[in-house]
Specification:
The structure is a single chain. The chain is an alpha/beta fold. It has 3 domains: 238 residues, P-loop containing nucleotide triphosphate hydrolases (Rossmann fold, 3-Layer(aba) Sandwich), CATH 3.40.50.300; 184 residues, 3-Layer(aba) Sandwich (Rossmann fold), CATH 3.40.50.300; 73 residues, no CATH class. Helix content is 34%, strand content 24%. It is built from 19 helices and 22 strands. The strands form 5 sheets. Strands 6-7-8-3-9-10 form a 6-stranded mixed sheet, with helices on both faces. Strands 16-19-20-13-21-22 form a 6-stranded mixed sheet, sandwiched between helices. Strands 2-1-4-5 form a 4-stranded antiparallel sheet, with helices on one face. Helix 6 links the parallel strand 7 and strand 8. It is globular. The protein starts with a strand and ends in a 5-residue tail after the last helix. It binds adenosine-5'-triphosphate (ATP) and magnesium ion. The site of magnesium ion (MG) has 4 residues, from helix 1.
């Protein structure tokens, strides 16, 4: 990509970018939220046309009018929201995009080719499974297979591991390495510096739409990368994951979950008799592989899913199966897993999104009249505190980069003085600087006396922030440990379904 510039109105998303990715390498693209990574790769994949600059593939100048043109030139992009048809099988989805040769769709041939290619790159999926039956990780594999079968030789991954479990992420990293070894060009966008170190041959750092540098992966450490991205030093916690907070002063029980059971979306038991208490000033972590009841637990507490059994109590108030708004008003803040689905409205501006939750309260609502100036000021404060970019309360939410949307949601949810906080993957998809800010706010809320339930797949994050960590497996808690006791083996065994009591049993001869 030679001298690429791309503007959205007044925003310069990419400015005079010179970017070269080679055959046979994994090239990581990193940078803060809004740095211009997705825009640059969307240009490469034919979704946007640059305002200036030239694309070359294999030395030849090319012009893409559509993603189809890019695929013809061998460039395919794996998005976070997959472009698959839910009700079709894996094989049908793959045939769907192929140019029709001769007779009707040859599903048998497609299935055979699918099995071949998937074996070769360790991308196992059942060709006859329907998309809706697959996990997110499996759907991602289908997406990769689809691009490979359509002849892609350059594969672009935009934050592919943000939606994966740790095991799936490790598998994907293997696949990326295997693809590079076979001569593919792999471009990988990520905020997780550990992954970048594990997989990249070269690293390009973007900041505010421009390239800071392209480096050999062996030549830099995490601290230097973080500094290049952010333009300043960051606290050590996030980089070294070494800090363990001692247990602070904790007060009375704020949130009590007693023997709670609930059904999942497919009407099968998702929670089976979960109990725990969180005290004022305490952060209680839930670790576990995604899909073991974490989402359902957060939803039951915040009123979005009925409990079939058990009780949830906030201080002395029974909030079991209460209306979500009642629960929110009673003082439970919620950072949901699905930010756009549950928390933000794309077509509205930032100011409106910032007050979606608090609009019934003073000083923002004075009688039935919403006071525009107070709203704007409130939004400005959140934007400033979390460095949301663009720092403009009249910008439309959907024009923000993914990470900046999340920053605004988290800022909104963690504003004020909630009695309890339910935070689900609060730093997923946000850059290191913003993660640092979010951890800072969670720590401050803890010191202030909030009782926090932190659901995360990031063990380092749990260890850095929690007073106690429980592991959930198939809807049951396997045990609770302190951060000091939380070694990888103990947590790993519990995440695989071994109760803590069993792990700690003395071995008998
Ligand atoms: N369709 C659009 N309309 C207006 N502005 C846009 C649009 N798409 C992106 N932008 C702006 O361009 C800039 C770069 O956004 P981009 O999505 O490329 O960032 P990113 O590096 O991928 O960030 P993240 O890590 O948060 O995903 C941001 O300031 C964003 O607000
Ligand atoms: Mg992006």
């Amino acid at each position: 990509m030679l001298g690429i510039t791309k503007r959205f109105g007044p925003v310069v998303a990419n400015e005079d970018i010179w970017f070269v990715a080679r055959k046979g390498e994994v090239h990581a693209l990193i940078g803060e939220n809004g740095a211009g990574k997705s825009t640059l790769m969307s240009i490469l994949a034919g979704f946007y046309r640059p305002d200036a600059g030239e694309l070359r593939v294999g030395g030849q100048p090319v012009t893409f009018r559509s993603p189809g043109d890019a695929i013809q030139a061998g460039i395919g992009m794996v998005y976070q929201h997959f472009m698959l048809v839910d009700s079709f099988t894996v094989a049908e989805n793959i045939v769907l995009g192929l140019p029709r040769t001769g007779v009707a769709l040859d599903l048998d041939a497609a299935e055979r080719q699918l099995v071949d290619v998937s074996k070769r790159y360790g991308l196992g999926v059942d060709p006859r499974a329907r998309i809706w039956q697959l996990s997110v990780g499996e759907q991602q594999r289908v997406e990769i297979l689809r691009l490979l079968i359509r002849g892609a030789t350059t594969l672009v991954f935009d934050e592919p591991t943000a939606v994966l479990t740790p095991q799936e992420s490790a598998d994907l990293i293997q696949t990326m390495r295997a693809l590079a070894a076979e001569g593919f060009c792999v471009i990988f966008i990520s905020h997780k510096l550990g992954e970048v170190e594990a997989v990249a041959d070269r690293i390009t750092v973007l900041r505010h739409g421009s390239i800071v540098d392209t480096l050999d992966a062996g030549a830099v450490d995490r601290r230097a990368l973080a500094r290049m991205m952010v333009g300043r030093e960051l606290a050590a916690v996030l980089l070294d994951d070494s800090e363990v907070d001692g247990a602070g002063e904790t007060g009375e029980v704020v949130l009590a979950v007693e023997n709670v059971s609930a059904l999942g979306d497919k009407r099968l038991p998702a929670l089976r008799g979960v109990s725990f208490e969180i005290r004022s000033g305490e952060t209680f972590g839930i670790a576990g592989v995604a899909g073991n009841g974490q989402r359902e637990l957060a939803e039951v507490i915040t009123g979005l899913r009925p409990a079939t059994e058990g009780t949830v109590t906030l201080r002395n108030m029974d909030i079991t199966n209460a209306h979500p708004r009642t629960i929110a008003r009673a003082g439970v803040a919620h950072v949901p897993e699905d930010r756009l689905g549950a928390g933000l409205v794309g077509p509205l501006d930032l100011a409106s999104n910032a007050i979606l939750r608090t609009y019934r309260r003073n000083p923002i609502a004075r009688g039935p009249m919403l006071v525009k100036r107070a709203i704007d000021r409130f939004a400005d404060r959140l934007i400033w505190a979390y460095e949301v970019n663009p720092a403009d309360h009249s910008a439309r939410l959907r024009d923000l980069s993914g990470g900046n949307q999340q920053k605004l949601l988290i800022a909104r949810e963690l504003a004020g003085e909630p009695a309890a906080i339910v935070a689900v993957h609060p730093t997923r998809g946000v850059d290191v600087g913003a993660s640092e800010a979010i951890h800072g706010v969670l720590r401050a809320q803890r010191v202030r006396g909030a009782a926090t339930l932190l659901i995360s797949e990031d063990l380092d994050e749990l260890i850095a922030l929690c007073d106690r960590i429980a592991v959930i497996y198939e809807g049951q808690l396997m045990g609770t440990v302190t951060p000091r006791e939380a070694d990888a083996e103990t947590l790993g065994l519990m995440m695989a379904g071994t109760p803590l009591d069993y792990i700690r049993q003395p071995v008998s001869a």
